[in-house]
Amino acid sequence: MKASLVCALLGISGLAFVVYAYEPPAVGTIGEKDAGKIVTIGGIVEEVKTVSDTTLMIVNGTKIVSFGNENIKKGERIQATGRVQIYNGEPEIVADSIRKV
Predict the structure, then answer these.
(1) What's the sign of the alpha-carbon dihedral 49, 51, 55, 61?
(2) Which of 8, 39, 43, 51 is the most buried (most CB within 10 A)?
(3) What's the domain count of the chain?
């Protein structure tokens, strides 16, 4: 009984550590060679601007575009997955999903 309790407590402690130490995956520098690829980026939102139903964000120096009202604020940690496209000669990620982490 004592061994089971100790194992359960260690397991719960381990899970708590994993959850709080989780760092979302980040993508390196994207460029024209990545156009059409689906990538995931995670990090702190450096800039955010919402115009109508379009949200533009900068995360780790990468521009992310979302066509939806995302309610994301500067300084929040997010993870975004989407397709790389070239717009006005610059690479950006058109997000399929964005979640706060």
Answers:
(1) negative
(2) 43
(3) 1
